[in-house]
Design goal:
11-stranded mixed beta sheet; 10-stranded mixed beta sheet; 1 helix
Length: about 250
C-alpha cells in the first residue's frame, strides 16, 4: 500500500493564518484608540435635536452660553471615524459610528430645545429640554426639568423623568418607569417592569401593569386610586389633591 498523502497546503495555510494573527497583535491593530473632537454652531442654526445612537451615551443640557457646543468622544479600532453629527433643516443630528467604534456625545445649548430619537444600550441624559420624545432598547433614559410634554419608551431599560411641566406618556416592556415632581397628566404602561410615580400637584394618572409593581403618590397630598384587572392586566387611575395650606 502507498503512504498516505500529507495535506501540506492546508498546513501551510494554517501557518500563514497564525503568522498573520501574530503580525496584527504585534502591531497593535486591535488596540483601542480614543480621540475627542469639538464643534460649535450658532444658536439660531438649531431648534431641534435628533438622536440615533446604537451603543453610545448622549448628554444634552442647557447652560448660560452663546452658542451650541458638541463634544464627541470616540473609541475605535482601525481607521479614525469622521464626525458623528450634522445639522440640516434646523435639526442637530447625533449619530453612531461604524463597526469597531463607539461615540459618546455631550451637547450644550443656550436654550431649551425639543429632543427626539432613540438609543440602543447607552444612556440618554436630557436636562432642560422644551419637550422630549425618546426611546431606548436596553439603555437608560434620564430626563429632568423639561418644560413641555414628554414621551418615553424603553424595552428592558429604565426611564427616569423628574420635574416635567407637561403631560407624560411612558411605556416599558420589562423595564422600569420612575417619575418625580410631575406637574401634568401621566399615562404609564409597563409589561413586567415597575411603575413608580410621584406628583407635584393634582393631576390625572393612568397606570397599567401586567406583572409588576405600580405606585403613585404625592409628598403634599392624598391619592385616590382604583384597580380593575382585565385580561391578566391591572389598571389603576389616580388623582392627587394637594393638602390646603394653612393661612
Amino acid at each position: 500500500m502507498g503512504r498516505p498523502m500529507v495535506q501540506r497546503p492546508a498546513l501551510a495555510v494554517g501557518g500563514i493564518a497564525v503568522m498573520a494573527a501574530g503580525v496584527v497583535l504585534a502591531f497593535g491593530w486591535f488596540d483601542e484608540t480614543t480621540t475627542e473632537r469639538t464643534s460649535t454652531f450658532a444658536a439660531d442654526e438649531v431648534d431641534r435635536i435628533a438622536v440615533d445612537v446604537g451603543g453610545g451615551n448622549v448628554a444634552v443640557r442647557v447652560e448660560d452660553v452663546d452658542e451650541i457646543t458638541v463634544v464627541e468622544r470616540f473609541s475605535y479600532r482601525w481607521n479614525e471615524p469622521g464626525d458623528a453629527h450634522s445639522v440640516s433643516d434646523g435639526a442637530l443630528h447625533l449619530d453612531g459610528c461604524a463597526m469597531w467604534c463607539r461615540v459618546d456625545h455631550e451637547v450644550v445649548v443656550p436654550r431649551a430645545l425639543a429632543v427626539d430619537g432613540e438609543i440602543g444600550s447607552g444612556t440618554l441624559d436630557i436636562e432642560g429640554a422644551s419637550s422630549a420624545d425618546v426611546r431606548a432598547g436596553s439603555g437608560t433614559l434620564r430626563l429632568s426639568d423639561v418644560t413641555g410634554d414628554v414621551q418615553v419608551d424603553v424595552g428592558s431599560g429604565t426611564a427616569e423623568f423628574t420635574g416635567i411641566g407637561g403631560e407624560v406618556v411612558a411605556d416599558a416592556g420589562s423595564g422600569s418607569l420612575v417619575g418625580r415632581d410631575l406637574r401634568g397628566a401621566v399615562e404609564a404602561d409597563a409589561g413586567s417592569g415597575r411603575v413608580d410615580l410621584e406628583l407635584a400637584e393634582a393631576a390625572d394618572v393612568t397606570a397599567s401593569v401586567a406583572a409588576a409593581t405600580c405606585a403613585s403618590s404625592s409628598p403634599t397630598g392624598t391619592t385616590a386610586s382604583r384597580a380593575t384587572p382585565a385580561a391578566g392586566r391591572a389598571s389603576s387611575a389616580s388623582a392627587t389633591t394637594p393638602t390646603p395650606r394653612t393661612p
